[in-house]
From TrEMBL:
<dbReference type="GO" id="GO:0003723">
    <property type="term" value="F:RNA binding"/>
</dbReference>
<dbReference type="Pfam" id="PF17846">
    <property type="entry name" value="XRN_M"/>
</dbReference>
<feature type="domain" description="Xrn1 helical">
    <location>
        <begin position="21"/>
        <end position="159"/>
    </location>
</feature>
<dbReference type="InterPro" id="IPR041412">
    <property type="entry name" value="Xrn1_helical"/>
</dbReference>
<protein>
    <recommendedName>
        <fullName>Xrn1 helical domain-containing protein</fullName>
    </recommendedName>
</protein>
<dbReference type="GO" id="GO:0000956">
    <property type="term" value="P:nuclear-transcribed mRNA catabolic process"/>
</dbReference>
<dbReference type="GO" id="GO:0004534">
    <property type="term" value="F:5'-3' RNA exonuclease activity"/>
</dbReference>
<dbReference type="GO" id="GO:0005634">
    <property type="term" value="C:nucleus"/>
</dbReference>
<dbReference type="InterPro" id="IPR027073">
    <property type="entry name" value="5_3_exoribonuclease"/>
</dbReference>
Length: 159
């Protein structure tokens, strides 16, 4: 407990130092929230975050289905175990909760393929940023950092 408290104090001290010595602009990433409650909030949210318009019905459906799949995957993972080693949520943002209605038809279409578990280094490479490539064996590092890597698109350095 004492070590954990000391580590937390060290961390907070370090963060205060970093924040106090850098201008606010260093911590702003260009992300701006879509103000809730303003006119056409939902339409602006979908367009700004997902580049979807109201006429993109199939894309809206795919977004909602992927989100529901994610909820089902998470529940199954904690109550039954892994139901798919390869499933992932393909979007950076979710649908509006008000759009998660009339989902009965969707439930009958959702299926998961168990697949094969990833190897430990593959799992690491799936969640580490390129700046942490030193945590994987040298053979794998180039895949995370080299511009010629066939999977470099999964390791952005600029957001």
């Amino acid at each position: 407990q004492a070590t954990e408290n000391a580590n937390q104090t060290d961390f907070l001290t370090m963060m205060e130092e970093v924040v106090s010595t850098h201008p606010r602009e260093d911590f702003v990433d260009g992300w701006t929230p879509v103000p809730v409650g303003q006119k056409d909030f939902k339409g602006r949210y979908y367009f700004e975050k997902l580049k979807l318009t109201p006429v993109d019905k199939q894309e809206h459906y795919a977004l909602r289905q992927a989100y529901i799949e994610g909820l089902m995957w998470c529940l199954a993972y904690y109550y039954k175990g892994c139901i798919s080693w390869g499933w992932f949520y393909p979007y950076h943002f979710g649908p509006m909760l008000s759009d998660l209605t009339n989902l009965e038809e969707m439930f009958t279409k959702i299926e998961f393929d168990l697949g094969e578990p990833l190897m430990p280094f593959e799992q690491l490479m799936g969640c580490l940023p390129p700046a942490s490539s030193q945590l994987v064996p040298p053979k794998y590092r180039q895949l995370m950092t080299s511009p010629q890597s066939p999977i470099i698109q999964f390791y952005p350095t600029d957001f």
